[in-house]
């Protein structure tokens, strides 16, 4: 005789759980990493590391501008070119070099800081709407560096003084 099969109960079907399928998750991760790499390489990198390409037409234009005198092109040893405009720069004459102890936006602040330093022989010089606290003005940068070493102040430096 045949054995009777017992019907499966509700409890026994709960014991067998569904096994998760990780293949779609792995596939999605691989696609997203690939898309991220492609975006970084072909979209972000060309924008960040942009180097203009010179063509034959551009080189002809720059040569024409060079003969006109409006632009000068200097070819460096690695083949890249540097374009400089003919801008008239007002040359400022150097009065000398001095040890600078501070720089302030107002003359009153500079004078109060100068008195708090307690060093004799300091002066306030105005340059470019700023007030510099400086020492003696020297003819050479080397003399100013020697004065800086002899002053013993850590937060001072040598600056250029213009006329």
From TrEMBL:
<dbReference type="GO" id="GO:0042834">
    <property type="term" value="F:peptidoglycan binding"/>
</dbReference>
<feature type="region of interest" description="Disordered">
    <location>
        <begin position="58"/>
        <end position="83"/>
    </location>
</feature>
<dbReference type="InterPro" id="IPR036680">
    <property type="entry name" value="SPOR-like_sf"/>
</dbReference>
<protein>
    <submittedName>
        <fullName>SPOR domain-containing protein</fullName>
    </submittedName>
</protein>
<feature type="compositionally biased region" description="Basic and acidic residues">
    <location>
        <begin position="58"/>
        <end position="74"/>
    </location>
</feature>
């Amino acid at each position: 005789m045949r054995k009777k099969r017992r019907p499966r109960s509700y409890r026994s079907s709960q014991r067998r759980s569904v096994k998760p399928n990780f293949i779609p998750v792995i596939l999605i991760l691989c696609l997203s990493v690939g898309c991220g790499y492609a975006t970084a390489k072909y979209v972000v990198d060309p924008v960040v590391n942009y180097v203009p390409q010179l063509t034959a037409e551009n080189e002809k234009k720059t040569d024409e501008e060079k003969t006109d005198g409006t632009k000068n092109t200097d070819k460096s040893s690695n083949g890249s070119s540097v374009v400089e405009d003919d801008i008239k720069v007002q040359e400022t004459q150097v009065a000398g070099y001095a040890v600078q102890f501070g720089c302030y936006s107002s003359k009153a602040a500079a004078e109060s800081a100068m008195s708090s330093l307690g060093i004799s022989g300091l002066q306030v010089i105005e340059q470019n709407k700023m007030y510099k606290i400086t020492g003696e003005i020297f003819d050479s940068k080397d003399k100013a560096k020697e004065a800086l070493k002899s002053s013993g102040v850590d937060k001072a430096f040598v600056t250029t003084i213009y006329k």
